[in-house]
Prior knowledge:
The protein is α+β, with helices and mostly antiparallel strands. 37% of the residues lie in helices and 28% in strands.
Amino acid sequence: MNLKKILALSLASVFLLTGCAERREAAQQMLENKKMENRHEATTFAMDTIMTFTVIHEDGDEIIIDAEQEIRRLENLLSVTVENSDISRLNAAAGKEALDMHVDTQVLLQAGKTLGEKTNGMFDIAISPIVKAWGFTEEEHHVPTQAELDALLPLSDPADVILKEGTAYLQKEGMAVDLGGIAKGYASDKVAELLKEKGVESAIFSLGGNVYGIGTKPDGEKWEVALANPLDANDYCGLISIENQATVTSGGYQRYFEENGKKYHHIIDPATGYPAESGLLQVTIISESGMEADVYSTALYVMGLEKALEFWKANGGFEAIFVTEAGEVIATEGADACFEFEGRDNDFTYRVVKRG
């Protein structure tokens, strides 16, 4: 083959490859445009909180409606403020009789008891009488006396929540359960399951701060969730990247009241009946399970940093980011891999804790 033919073939190959590259780029752009056209968003109010949805799917609007209906179905079973919910009926029958429970209610009550035992009682589904005594249930705030708390503490033992063959029974009159610290996490898992069953590969939704990201964003990047600055509602400490994961944050700054110059927040230590004084401002959990993230964010907050890190080292399946009263942001090693710290300008320091 002569030199001219070789040169001609080489140039043809270059043009062919260039054309393929351009077509691939054009096809990729068309695909991304199509995905953006399939972006559907909605906001609703349920479970006493604002919920937001972003779903990338051609049937996104209908799928979001299905998700809202699933949340309202669970709310009608699990909410203490819905008159005929399973939980309201159970509380009304405390000390009197066992009642049949829907399978979702039974599953969640059992999970609450199991995770409560696992966290050495730092998560307590039977804490409701004490939370109510502080006025956080109806937002009629009140600092209870020690005598009041002493009378209520015996009513807050999850061991007195008896589950048997599809029924539930509260052994003592005056007992009450409240699934507020686990129900939204459970709902996020159920919604994620529903969306995936309907073919959704890209979505993010927030059930009152319980955030779940399915797959990645249309451009292939992970979903990003801001880590709140507990000292400034208009600021954040960094960004968490998630893919098929949930992230939940608990902090005493979220709900509190002041009396005689002292702040009282809503996260109660089950051992004392008082708001937890653990040295932590907030705890964020990252997990594939929204339910576990919901529970652990509360339980580890009550534990305090040292015991929380011991719990993390002893148990797999989740990562954590802590913000302390001393101004430290502390990430477990798995959390560090998906967290971009941006709190230095606000005088926070940052360090990573390893399991080994």
